[in-house]
Amino acid sequence: MIQLFTIGFTEKSAERFFDLLAGNGVTCITDTRVNTTGQLSGFAKGSDLAFFARTIGNMQYAHHLDLAPTRELLARYRAKELSWEAYETEYLLANSKKYGGRCLAGIEVERDEAGALHVTRTAHHLPAWIRPVSRTPYGEMPEKLVRHLQLCDLVSFDMDFACPQEFQRENVFYTANRFEKTGNLNLKAHNLAQLTDTREGLLGNLRKSLTPAEAAGLDHSIVLIRTQPSAMRFYEIGATHLRTVFPYQDATFDLPVTDIDFYLKWIDVPDLLSPATDGFLCVSLRREKDGFYYKLVAGVLVV
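Now predict its structure.
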């Protein structure tokens, strides 16, 4: 398992900085700063830091702007126009078609004041999900507002307040009409595995739906699970409805796929799963219909 640490260079000597890294067994420094050449960077200027990491600590160095806050975001924060708490960022794992719009959801992530990215976890150490919703009856997002977003994007938006509804504890209202893509993380399978949830709640009854009594016992409405692409099968009903059959735990599920981007890719390349070795499905629970709460696949990731 990969261990991630965060560290700042201000108010530290070079000796103290590298002693802390070496003492914790660090093998690679990932620099997430927008600007690595500032006059106040001292020994931590990008090219110098790479040299010192290699010669002093035998460590690798990498500068990843896709993990950095945007210049606009930093400017708003420094001008005190924005607090880190008010500006929510999520790692997008669900992007569904919904009542003429979209339904987005992802793992909540936070940046510290140095710009480093951290997965937010619940009291049970599970990834914390967040689902921005509108104030329409079904909460769908306007297509024109979010059509530029794709799975694995880092998406930032202004949050108003949490608005949990029944078992959909992840829901939050957003303010303004700004959903900003601040990066994209194509994580490896072992990284995505750390975001999965193997609780029995949502999928535990081994059926395609939950009864109202079963749904009432949930404190979540969305999970990421891992499965094998070789065991998955996709098929189309009509001209616009995609479904997938996949094994999970002790059952075989047959669920609708509402991930519109995956559907469009599948139409063009039906065997796109063939080279993949790992599959991850974002399984969500829709609102009540005909006395049941039906499960669906809101995101498909194959790596």
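The helical segments are 14-23, 46-57, 71-78, 143-146, 189-193, 212-216, 260-268.
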